[in-house]
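Summary for the lay section of the report: proteins are chains of building blocks that fold into shapes. Here we show the chain for EF-hand domain-containing protein and then a coded description of the shape we predicted for it.
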Amino acid sequence: MASEAEKTFQRFAVLGDSSSSGAEINNKNLSKLCQDCGITDGKTVTSEDVDAVFNKVKAKDAGTITFQQFTEAMKELGQKRFKEQSPDQGLEDIFKLMEGKNPATTGGFYQAASAGAVDRHTDTSKHTGSHEEHLDDSGKGKDIAGPEETTDNSGYGRGYKGDGTYDKKN
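The coded shape description reads as follows.
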């Protein structure tokens, strides 16, 4: 039977990764877990600390860590976060922070990132230069066909200049 901490670990492990079994977690989701559960506080434990312990406990070429490696990482972070505690107590305190937590998706860190990335491309007020003329106010393309003067490219080969001109003498 999985502990509460392990259940939380699994919920974060599968986040945004449908192929994940929940047995291993990547660095991005580990950072999110630490952020959402209040393990990182920006003072004693920062996201840099999380990256550092992730890289320390993971296997050399691995992109993920197991729950066992995660436990080692949390023990180390627990010593930073709860300095006065023993490593085991610090780990327990971290696991208490994790109890019943779910990845925060409302207005959290994922939405902000993805929304911002798309907004930049569709917000016409931020467009500069000649390409801005190709978008209407809603950010949709206009005059997709391009300039009025379209060449008739039906016919043969590269140098061919329009259908029906083959027999005409210039």
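Put simply, here is one thing we learned. The first strand starts at residue 24 and ends at 26.
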